[in-house]
Amino acid sequence: MKTFLRSVLAASAASLSLAACVVHTNPPPPPGDRPPAPDPMLTADGQHFAVSRTYQGECAPAGSRGGCYSVSLEPDGAYRHMLLDAPITGTYVIAGDKVNFTPAGAAPPSSMTLSADRTRLDDYVYQPPVGQTPIVQ
Question: How many domains, the chain?
Fold first, then answer.
């Protein structure tokens, strides 16, 4: 009986040590269930553009006081919204097709809609850096 009991105990110990070595892994999700790849135009957190972008709206007539309406968006989350010759600065966050602005001063928060191809921000048009082909309205 002692020999039988020792055999059973030895077999149980060997079985337990083998079970401890088994690695359980979950199979990878099917391709349709995988999260989408990160957007290369956005920062890793998906909340800001990865490179500076400027969108321009209407401009004051030539020779008059003023400038243009424009929004410049920076990778660090800063923005500068020019209202002709009056700048508003603060921070921005991209949430889907909305760009939400939080001004540094007393101006209220606001948002603008980004087109699917990101060439428009409301009625402002993307202005590529000098040396790149501009987008025609």
Answer: 1
